[in-house]
Amino acid sequence: MMEKKVHYKMHKVKKNWVAIAVTSLALLVAPKALGLESDVIYADDANQVADVKEQSTVQSKDTEHTTSDKAAEPSQLEAKEQPSSKETYQASAATNPTAKEQTTQQDKEAETTRIDSRQELTQKVSDDSSEKNDSSQEPKVADQAESTDKAQDALQAKQDSRANDQEETTENVAKATVSDKIIATPKKGHLPEPAQRKESITEKMLAAQAQAAPVNTEHDDDVLAHIKTIDGKKYYVQDDGSVKKNFAVELNGKILYFDAETGALVDSNEYQFQQGTSSLNNEFTQKNAFYGTTDKDIETVDGYLTADSWYRPKFILKDGKTWTASTETDLRPLLMAWWPDKRTQINYLNYMNQENLGIGAFESKTEQVLLTNAVQQVQRKIEERISKEGDTKWLRTLMSAFVKTQPNWNIKTESETTGTNKDHLQGGALLYTNSDKTSHANSRYRLLNRTPTSQTGTPKYFIDKSNGGYEFLLANDFDNSNPAVQAEQLNWLHYMMNFGSIVANDPTANFDGVRVDAVDNVNADLLQIASDYFKSRYKVGESEEEAIKHLSILEAWSDNDPDYNKDTKGAQLAIDNKLRLSLLYSFMRKLSIRSGVEPTITNSLNDRSSEKKNGERMANYIFVRAHDSEVQTVIADIIRENINPNTDGLTFTMDELKQAFKIYNEDMRKADKKYTQFNIPTAHALMLSNKDSITRVYYGDLYTDDGQYMEKKSPYHDAIDALLRARIKYVAGGQDMKVTYMGVPREADKWSYNGILTSVRYGTGANEATDEGTAETRTQGMAVIASNNPNLKLNEWDKLQVNMGAAHKNQYYRPVLLTTKDGISRYLTDEEVPQSLWKKTDANGILTFDMNDIAGYSNVQVSGYLAVWVPVGAKENQDARVTASKKKNASGQVYESSPALDSQLIYEGFSNFQDFATCDDQYTNKVIAKNVNLFKEWGVTSFELPPQYVSSQDGTFLDSIIQNGYAFEDRYDMAMSKNNKYGSLDDLLNALRALHSVNIQAIADWVPDQIYNLPGKEVVTATRVNNYGTYREGAEIKEKLYVANSKTNGTDYQGKYGGAFLDELKAKYPEIFERVQISNGQKMTTDEKITKWSAKYFNGTNILGRGAYYVLKDWGSKEYLSNKNGETALPKQLVNKEASTGFVKDTNGFKFYSTSGNQAKDTFIQDENGNWYYFDNQGYLVTGAREIDGKQLYFMKNGVQLRDALQEDENGNQYYYDKTGAKVLNRYYTSDGQNWRYFDAKGVMARGLVKIGDGQQYFDQNGYQVKGKVVRAKDGKLRYFDKDSGNAVINRFAQGDNPSDWYYFGADGVALTGLQKIGQQTLYFDQDGKQVKGQVVTLADKSIRYFDANSGEMAVNKFAEGAKNEWYYFDQDGKAVTGLKTINNQVLYFGQDGKQVKGQVVTLADKSIRYFDANSGEMAVNKFAEGANNEWYYFDQDGKAVTGLKTINNQVLYFGQDGKQVKGQVVYVDGAERYFDPKSGDMVRNKWIRLEDGTWMYFDRNGRGRRFGRN
Q1: Which residues contact 1131 (CB under 8 A, 6 or more apart)?
Q2: What is the strand order of the sheet 1001-1006 is part of?
Q3: What angle do CA 1223, 1228, 1234 make, to 5 degrees?
């Protein structure tokens, strides 16, 4: 007998913990225990065991079971279990006196058993395969004349033998009527068995393989050690307890396969499909045959049949009983008579059963003959209901709903990405490719990623290393490389700019400029086209005045865009994104991740440092927040973290949005914010006072982002309002910015100071601080003082001097904004400011501030400090702004930095999230028109209106949910077909008129990248791609036919205005059309005017949820079903041709006939269980490793293809086959957009520490790359792998999982330990590699060191605090001093542990007694000091405690040999007894003293005492 040790572990099964016995596989489990289920293959390598049944009996850990050995037949092997480790035997030996002897024998037996296990698990045994194979033969088509009766008779015979409880009736079927017989619901126990009998895995496991691969004993032992029995099934359990799924591993040269659903071992020899064919011809297929093949007879899209296609059959089964010739209106769903595969047919039956139109539920193993009869019964019920309802509307709704449930026809086969792993804002993108099948959608263009960085296809700019933004951003992506599309974009631009003139014959309602949306996502040719238009039509290049009249801006995020715009002399302004990021990270982020304030001076398109402020300037505009920046991303974070963790936060319900804004608004009103931005007033103070930039103020900084338009002010409104008004009066002249460091001890390093930023404008006429200026200068100018440190505290000696310039010497200044404990005080006029707050410059024009003026604060508005100062005495109507020049810029640039350009102010006058109007007066455009005078008071010169397009409501992305205007279906429909979110057409026209009435220009939003949800459908050839148009590896959609929403019909405003202005524009401005565009090398064309959109004008679309196979195809012939002339391809049985379907075997192997009756050749086939197979060009099932279409694939012995699966060979190498079954080679790969693996040229998956290129990378046991983490590899060494590249970092610091843990990795990438010299710093790392900070450490040499709490640098020649109130001093070598030391003219004492002694009496080695001050630690000299328990000492000029009789401060005192002062005692000294006062300690003279024993003593005038008796 063989002993079996059983261990118990707790496993989590769904939401419950169950105890399951886990045994190491040593011998085979009994055949019955290996009963197997097969199902669809989807990989999930690392999930815990699912659906494990709780054991009925839980056995004790100590229970031992024995089984008797029995002889096994050749076809049966006994299940035996053997201990898997020596620990089991040793445990037994501890309780068995003879265990030592037994253990040796057991070890030998165990080794023999392991060898036997490999052999038995994979050995070839005899079976009855010939018997099984004989059961299926080449298909034979039944004689047409008797097919119906024979099918019914065969079905009835099967029911007679298998369902005794089923009601049975047999009626003859008349030629014009159908039997009323209904098949009872097939019961699970009565369903026909598969043609091949199930047998144990051990009898069949790879038995047909002719030769075994070489055996690797070490590998096989490792595999066996990981195979565990759980509830009678075998699983491959990894070291971390997770179960590998969809995993094929080689053992003893054979393949073990663990399924995708549960991870249980299944038989890879057993065929998963039913064998045998079934005729598809019967009376129903005759009657259901296509009436004709014209478009009147079949509903198609571009001649192709889809899952939603209906057709006209020859006959309809009227009332469900009588075949009646069809009429033109008698259309029926194709899916009522034909299905692309058995799996879909079964799903159809089950769906109809749920809708009370079926006859029961069916499983995948149901025989085809039963299914054929069942669908006939469903058709009868459908026809009965059609007669009852009187129409088929209900059926169309029902069938459409059914189609959406099928993976091949929904988003499940579109490689959708979700949550934070999206590779596209709408879950996925599709690229249209050219094909003969869809020639109507072909294009000679589709030049992708031609952004300003790479307009020619080759990068030209390299500040930003990327290629630009996403090519596929949203919805239908315009092919802006197509000359016809380019011309249409120009046509649309002209329409927008002249909107009032075109739709209302009113030029006062035109737009003046544009914001170009998503510059980094469109072809850069459009920027030239727009610039050419503005230069030709508005002459913006002829003078600064004209340019400013038509101020336009780019939404251009890339750092390459400004240089591109300069080189092409663009007619729009670029963003100073460098400065935007500087402001965000210097002031607006949470304290823990703020940078210093220095970048706000230098990290900008225009360096404002004193050295470079007068260098070359670049015109630009600046903002810190926008409708889609620093708002919607914050909302997304809130939704994801607090409301719906399964979303990326950019697709939500309106209720989720409401919840998010409750959190957002509460957070905004906190001093310690979690989500929203800090220091918004500070950022505006700096932007609005800066030279060489135009500020764009965002609506959402003045008013809440949600709520009705302008209804509720933000906490920052009043401060920004004051800044806007002050800007008009004071901001002019030259500028100087600097950082002053103060607020910490003077001897500290500069980096540890608190930097205070000052920015000064001198006023018109003064460019430098030394300029005297004019009288006008005197009342202009502004100073901004800002800190980002809420803990800022100046020292008494700190004096911040701000040079206001020579023009402002001996002049009073007053605050506009001043930070207080509770917020910001604002002052709009001189009179509002108490004169006690005024400050006067000195004779050099310098304002001085000290610790009473400046400190750090933390309140809702300010985290740090902010003050804005202006001269006293300006007139109420003072205006420091400058008018534009009428001269042309000599550089040829449309915009050059100038005082006139600086005088402009753009207002982005909307929020994405403002509420929908509930009454007419709340419409945004109405409110804008009413408030134009306020905007004028703020100094707004250009008002950026929200996009005015009527919104799509498809709900696939934020824009169409909140209907902000960026998701439109007709670009020319600007509140014309109906009100948009912002009001009516009249509201828009009136807002434009009102703005122009106060000389504020209007900026329109030009959105040339995408268009949503077009009404017409087209069949296109599509490939699933990522944002940049690169095929998404593993996606099923690769050059497949797909139905896109890409057409319009010409009856919309596109039809009315599309191309309508091109001829006029070409006649007036021919130079625009003469330009050869950079990306395509062609001129725009006016010959092709786009009044109807279609796929040929687009690069592609977002995935639409129609699945990979919505355009129906026959799997056997690979032909798409079509009624196109000369290309008609329809199911054989529905055109009265003989047809059969199923898997059949001949002497050469298995063949397959599709549900259209075609033999599968050179094609993939999916069975009813979802498994995939491939049939070669001769039509036979393939097995083993194959190269097909240039891809390496693997098919198990049963023909099932490995998909989304791992395979492990005898050497332990693992390979991955992606979701299409292709082996991944020589690249990184991700199936979820987040977790990456690497495969070498042979496909071997990287695991552990691997050298790739010049770097080391680390992959976990499942092959997933580790990034941004510290990892201890098998060599026991710690390494950190970069969060971006994944390479092991060298010669640099890295942060661990705990934010406080820092490591340094040397030249070999290994974490350093111990004392290390890094750069100019001496640092210390503990044995785990973590840097020690703020701690006292005793090194191996017993020296005591301290490492700074911030920098980690070893303390040298300085004090440092260890534990609370424990102080040390570290010498020039960084070692803690001990003993008596003189430091900074103080005599101090340090114990042997290095701790400074304070408030203690200490006896030194020389026996002298000393005392060290409780506060300073300084040695007491010429002073009293109190020791413990009211013990007093006096320390002389040398710091030593005195002893004996001493005269101190005219008192005669006595100190014992221990230095303690004697009080209230008689002491014999100097030849006499003397007494010292209990309180003062002074020697008593001329006084009687009663002693404690009751006796009396008298002390004479010399203090000599004489004793007397008791009274």
Answers
A1: 280, 338, 1114, 1121, 1139, 1155, 1156, 1157
A2: 553-554, 513-516, 1001-1006, 942-944, 905-908, 694-698, 620-622, 574-575
A3: 110
Spatial neighbors of 651 by CB under 8 A, at least 6 apart, are 955, 956, 957, 958, 961
Quick: pLDDT tens for 1222-1270: 999 999 998 777 889 999 999 999 999 999 988 999 999 899 999 999 9
Q: What is the pLDDT of residues 22-62, one digit of tens each?
A: 433 333 333 333 333 333 323 333 333 333 333 333 333 33
1407, two tokens: 């026996």
What span, in angstroms and rounded, lies between the C-alpha atoms of 1236 and 1215?
14
Is the CB of residue 1129 less than 8 Å from the CB of residue 1119? yes
First to last CA, the chain: 107
Task: Report helix, strand or coil for 640.
Answer: helix
Calpha distance 1068→1072 (Å, rounded): 9
Phi, psi of 835 (to 5 degrees): -65, -20
CA of residue 854 relative to chain centroid, distance: 41
Which residues have CB under 8 Å from 669's CB, separation 6+?
715, 860
The Cα 971–Cα 1010 span in angstroms is 10
Backbone angles phi, psi at 354, to 5 degrees: -65, -25
CA-CA distance, 517 to 474, in Å (whole number)?
13
- 237 DSSP 8-state letter: B
For helices 368-389 and 393-405, the axis angle rounded to 10 degrees is 140
- Residue 1116 CA to residue 1151 CA, distance in Å, equals 10
1158 burial class (0-12, 13-18, 19+ CB within 10 angstroms)? buried
Which uninterrupted H or E stretch holds 1488? Answer: strand 1487-1490
Cα Rg of the chain (Å, integer): 44
Cα separation, 1490 vs 1486, whole angstroms: 13
596: nearest Cα among 754, 736, 746: 754
- Phi, psi (rounded to 5 degrees) for 412: -65, -25
Nearest residue to 596 via CA among 720, 753, 709, 732: 753
Q: How many helices (H) and strands (E) does the chain have?
A: 31, 73
Polymer length of the chain: 1511
Q: At residue 142, does pLDDT exceed 50? A: no
The percent of residues in the chain predicted with pLDDT above 70, rounded, is: 85
Which residues share a beta bridge with 1184? 1195
Q: Please, which residues have CB within 8 angstroms of residue 729's CB and are 6 or more apart in sequence?
A: 780, 870, 874, 878, 879, 880
Using alpha carbons, select from 793, 748, 789 the residue that is nearest to residue 1351: 748
Distances (CA, A) of 1476 to 369, 1430, 1480: 123, 16, 8
Distance CA 508, CA 513 (A): 14
Cβ density class 1269-1280: b for 16+ within 10 Å, e for less: ebbeeeeeebbb
Neighbours of 716 (CB within 10 A): 25
Q: Which residues contact 692 (CB under 8 A, 6 or more apart)?
A: 606, 608, 617, 618, 619, 620, 897, 902
Distance, CA of 397 to CA of 640 (rounded, Å):
34
Question: How would you label 1420-1434 residue by residue, b for 16+ Cβ within 10 Å and e otherwise?
Answer: beeeebebeeeebbb
- The chain-wide mean pLDDT, for the chain, equals 87
CA pair distance 1154, 1137, nearest whole angstrom: 14
Distances (CA, A) of 350 to 185, 283, 355: 11, 23, 9
The amino acid at residue 581 is L
What per-residue string of b and e applies to 1079-1108 under the rule 16 or more CB within 10 Å gives b?
bbeeebbbeebbbbbbbbbbbbbbbbbbbb
Considering only CA atoms, which of 243, 251, 248, 253 is closest in space to residue 268?
Answer: 248
Q: What 8-state DSSP symbol labels residue 1409?
A: E
Q: Measured between alpha carbons, how far is 1050 from 972 in angstroms, rounded to an integer? A: 12
